[in-house]
């Protein structure tokens, strides 16, 4: 059983998947930082300093006017936090676009490598009779 587990782990697909998950987690941190630190301030600048993450509607309970989403939640009010949802959608769209661009680039690199393989001259077959020629000679020799 232990040997089977070692064989399973040693397969390339499992290792590739593990590397993909680790890189994906690091990539998510980079995109979150890009959205939170670079894109949100620019969007907020164009929208007059609006921070989407603090946009909410109080469904029940009392909250001080202009309180942040965190303060409203701490006060125990039921809130409809549509701003956080808008930010999650924006994050998703940015991540999807970046992944699309990455896959597109990788596919172009693969296509270029395939074209180079196709354009490279194939090795010439060794001079001399082919296997079929040898077999035909043997057949003819056996007929005699």
Question: Can you describe this structure?
Answer:
The protein has 144 residues and is mostly helical. It has a single domain (2-121), classed as Large-conductance mechanosensitive channel, MscL, domain 1 (Non-ribosomal Peptide Synthetase Peptidyl Carrier Protein, Chain A, Orthogonal Bundle). The protein has five helices and two strands, in the order ααβαβαα. The protein has a two-stranded antiparallel sheet with strand order 1-2. The chain is elongated, with a radius of gyration of 31 Å. The model has no long low-confidence stretch (mean pLDDT 80).
Describe the secondary structure blueprint for this structure.
Layout (H helix, E strand, L loop, with lengths): L1 H9 L1 H35 L10 E4 L8 H6 L3 E3 L1 H38 L11 H13 L1
Antiparallel strand pairs: 1-2
Helix pairs in contact: 2-4
Q: Any idea of the CATH topology?
A: Non-ribosomal Peptide Synthetase Peptidyl Carrier Protein, Chain A
Name the helicity range. Answer: over 70%
Morphology: elongated
Mean pLDDT: 80
CATH homologous superfamily grouping: Large-conductance mechanosensitive channel, MscL, domain 1
Radius of gyration: 31 Å
What gap, in angstroms, lies between the N and C termini? 60 Å
**Proper CATH architecture:** Orthogonal Bundle
Give a concise summary.
By secondary structure, the chain is mainly alpha-helical.
Jot down its keywords.
144 residues, two-stranded antiparallel ribbon
